[in-house]
């Protein structure tokens, strides 16, 4: 059985998808970009601020599901320019304990939704 997770602390979906789906003990989040959940407008600012907003949006979804970043077991990071990796990685690292950080991949892509610089999705488990 799947349960749809919805929160006002992350951007509303703009297509046929949900913010997250919980099935069994697994939570799958949709990729988050720097859309301000209060206005549903694309954030315009520094790469650091953009990455923090992406992580804040992920946190909003995790919180709604009763989880934290400690429950995350896998992330996927999509970036528009691999030259930005060190900046994004530095911000990302602020949200995880290095000793228990999730597995992940980071991939440079040609374009992301709304031509943002970074998109991150996560898989979490409820029973850590």
From TrEMBL:
InterPro entries xref list: RidA (IPR006056), RutC-like_sf (IPR035959), YjgF/YER057c/UK114 (IPR006175)
Top-level taxon of origin: Bacteria
Alphabetical list of PANTHER family matching this protein: 2-IMINOBUTANOATE/2-IMINOPROPANOATE DEAMINASE RIDA, PROTEIN HMF1-RELATED
Entry's family note: Belongs to the RutC family.
Protein name per Swiss-Prot or TrEMBL: Reactive intermediate/imine deaminase
Organism of origin: Mesonia mobilis
């Amino acid at each position: 059985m799947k349960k749809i997770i919805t929160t006002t602390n992350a951007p509303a979906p703009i297509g046929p998808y949900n913010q997250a789906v919980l099935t069994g003990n697994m939570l799958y989040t949709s990729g988050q970009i720097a859309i301000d959940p209060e206005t549903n407008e694309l954030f315009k600012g520094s790469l650091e601020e953009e990455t923090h907003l992406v992580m804040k949006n992920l946190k909003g979804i995790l919180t709604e599901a009763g989880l934290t970043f400690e429950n995350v077991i896998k992330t996927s990071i999509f970036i528009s320019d691999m030259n930005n990796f060190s900046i994004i990685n530095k911000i990302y690292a602020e949200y995880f304990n290095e000793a228990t950080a999730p597995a992940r991949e980071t991939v440079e892509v040609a374009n992301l939704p709304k031509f943002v610089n970074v998109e991150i999705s996560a898989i979490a488990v409820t029973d850590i």
